[in-house]
Amino acid sequence: MARPPPPIVEHEWKVRPADRACARALVRALGVPPGQGGRVEPVEDVYLDTADRALLASGYGYRLRRRGGRPPEATLKALASPDATGVSSREEWTEPAPAGDADPKRLPKGALASMLAQLVGDAPLAPLARVRGRRTTWRVPADEGLVVEVSLDQVRLDCRGRSAPLLEVETELVSGAPEAFRRFLAAVPRVRGAAPSASSKLERALRLGRVRVPSPTAIAAVRLAAGTQAGPRAATARAVGRRHREGRARGADSARSRRSTRCLAPRKCRAKRATARDSR
């Protein structure tokens, strides 16, 4: 199997402010001058996956993004937990999707199409979750040659008929060293009501829709079974994902069976005692 194409590694810090006043204070604390207007755009993200959620089982989210007047973009992004500093570092592959179509077969030939082919093969994709709303962004030059992008997201999450609002501030490294980025964030003044966010918007939407997000252990098992850490083969990934789900289902059935047995045993005993009394 060919090696998967090299990704870009994104470094970002996510925070959930208690309200809009807290969000504005946090944006200022990150270096945006008071009163400076950012770039405001409507944003719509549609996350897609196969019927058996092969991408999610392999630890990836795949989205089609539309933002204002910009051309649509298709992005494959790894799930990742933040480190001790609160920064999430994850692989991503992005390509323009000029026709607004996220079908891998219609994407330009390149890294993203190649990666998707390895992950899902010819399996059709369907919407899994949506994120819609407004994003305001600012570019902030910082010390040590850093440039960061600060984003204020006021969006709505939708998944399987459930919907909820989300207010979030993201800070992403645009250029510079990741360690310098972490030092920059460590020096940001604390803002009352601002709490670090450990989940991506996709993960939040999935939990809202009661879709199980695989654990890092389960993702590692799928990738290991597929024989590669970054690009598991579609059939194997789906098969291992099915085995995980079937195992959970068998465990649930077994538990129900044990509960049923425990419930039936006392009934049988009571019936025997009643029969014995009647015979006397």
Overview of the molecule:
The protein is of the alpha+beta class. Helix content is about 35%, strand content about 30%. An eight-stranded antiparallel beta barrel has the order 1-5-4-3-2-6-7-8, surrounded by four helices. The longest helix has about 45 residues, at about 235-280. It starts with 7 loop residues before the first strand and ends with a helix. The model is unreliable at about 230-245 and about 255-270 (pLDDT under 50).
Gist of the model:
The chain has 280 residues and is an alpha+beta fold.
What is the structural class?
alpha+beta
* Assembly level: single chain
| Largest sheet strand order | 1-5-4-3-2-6-7-8
- Residue ranges: pLDDT <50 for 5 or more in a row? 230-245, 257-269
Taken in chain order, the helices and strands follow as EHEHEEEHEEEHEHHH
Distance between the termini: 78 Å
Secondary structure tally: strands: 9
Strand content: 25-35%
- What is the arithmetic mean of pLDDT? 85
Principal-axes geometry comes out as: globular
Round the Cα radius of gyration to an integer and report it. 24 Å
Helix proportion of residues, in percent? 25-40%
Tell me the major beta sheet.
8 strands, antiparallel, barrel
Number of helices in the DSSP assignment: 7
